[in-house]
């Protein structure tokens, strides 16, 4: 087995990952959990859950803490601990308070469709097979299922026949996707509704609330609703206060009219203090337990560092002299002089020290013969382990250009990671409802310089939250945008009628309809209005693609992280304003196809003669992917690690770009070696031991 130093040379920095956002569908990393961190707080919430399990009465926990104290990771620990005791749902910030019940239902059902760890079926199917009407899990035929379950739940079920019929269809391979869509509140077309034996969709706040109550009634376990990232919810009209009252109104309704629910409201302490008076006293009384996550101690910070280093230590022979090697207790005491800190701060400082240590190992390597190959920080010496925390720090002139380049590179990695997650999880545009899609688009336009935005273009209609108007920076007239992906043609007719009224009132010129779903047959009334409005200028129908949704969703997720003070780039916690600056500087949204079609963020395109055929397009796409992979590899070596194992580098690239094979990445590495941008430090070593490093020019630039 290799030594720990050889492993550190090869490996990714174990302190790189910070936990944020939606925990549903994600596996906990393999590092050991530090049980002592927030142990008492976890026990409090477990007691509340036990009470819900006993009497089925809903309860609410307020989970508060400072930024960086570990709220998101705490929710992931809850998911692991409650895996066999409850069904967990992650509720992201809602885009419009008028849709909060429908939003909650959508995210609840989406979460219930995830397969828990060590299970073969989704939470929803586990729920169905464990309800009291079917003690052995055998649900029988459709008729038997509906008859038996209706006999079990004789009252309190909303749309009883439709609801139980759709639950049964969740087990039918030919209908389960349609049944899932109906249950989450999608506005299905007539054919799909008929296939399920239902007459209408869940298209109102009352219907969504009643469906949530239905789920609580039939669930054999508590359903834990985790509301998170609340700094991104809508604000009250003409106010800086968050509309957090909308959430607590939902919470109070769950308390009075449902069963088997437990709500966890995760919020930054400062945010709660600023907005607490917005919540009515009667609704604040529905909070059963307040749990505040505190700073961690020096000993806990040491345990946290040890947990991150554990996977590397397990591979080493001989074993390192301490569980936190190459870190030291003295280093921790210097970095945490008050003996209290946040988990995020401990991880950020650990990441920086491991980065410096890898550089010190590279300097000491006899294989590196070029004297200008490395430009170590002044704090890095050969006696790194013994003196890191004790030696005086010399005054060094800041290298602003290097810091800027690292910030840009770190931000690109964060974007790529988020974009890759979205491209794997989001497989259709209807993953989001209309208000969320419009919210994403509004945020992108605002960031790219659109100053004048008026919400609810289609005011007075059910599609008000799916529309807005704006003025482009160089124009003097209002443009309207409507984005609705409902499948039901009766709803589509209502949409077209609302668009027609807006045009007649001259509310925008022109009007853009963004829609991927169909527009109906030529003989339908909705299609006839559509043809009259959107055939020819000035009004335009734009069909969005999945790439556009991934771009907008990626930026939206980063905005939510920034608002919640969870977005860390180059060891800085970014504000929303700084994130917007990075987006503009990087011009990353300029690649969004939908924004290009709207005339927003258009980059100049060189005039090149090209063959307009499938073969040329496929070749161009391969070239683009190849360049992206090459840029990713170069960024890892030049900005992130400067020394990394060859196999680890290939694994990272293949993980980031699943469509790329390892042999293709290997070929790109060879190209970079030939261009003398990187080099293999020990080319005669076995492949699994080879190291790749950066070869800067005389100025230190690539």
Short description, anyone?
The protein has 702 residues and is of the alpha/beta class. Helices cover 47% and strands 10% of the residues. Among the domains are: 52-231 and 252-260 and 286-293, no CATH class; 297-387, no CATH class; 429-544, Dna-directed Rna Polymerases I, Ii, And Iii 27 Kd Polypeptide, Chain: A, domain 1 (3-Layer(aba) Sandwich), CATH 3.40.1340; 614-694, Arc Repressor Mutant, subunit A (Orthogonal Bundle), CATH 1.10.10.
Shape: globular
Q: Quaternary arrangement of the chains shown?
A: single chain
* SS element count, helices: 27
Mean pLDDT: 86
Largest sheet: 5 strands, parallel
Low-pLDDT regions: 366-397, 603-618, 698-702
Radius of gyration, in Å, reads 28 Å
> What amount of the residues lies in strands?
5-15%
Strands ordered across the widest β-sheet: 2-3-4-1-5
DSSP E strands, number: 17
The level of helicity is 40-55%
What is the straight-line distance between the termini? 34 Å
The computed structural class is alpha/beta
How does this structure look, described?
It is a single chain. The protein is α/β, with parallel strands linked by helices and 702 residues long. Among the domains are: 197 residues, no CATH class; 91 residues, no CATH class; 116 residues, Dna-directed Rna Polymerases I, Ii, And Iii 27 Kd Polypeptide, Chain: A, domain 1; 81 residues, Orthogonal Bundle (Arc Repressor Mutant, subunit A), CATH 1.10.10. Helices cover 47% and strands 10% of the residues. The strands form five sheets. It has a five-stranded parallel β-sheet. Helix 18 crosses helix 22, helix 19 crosses helix 22 and helix 25 packs across helix 27. The longest helix is centred in the last third of the chain and has 27 residues. The two termini are 34 Å apart.
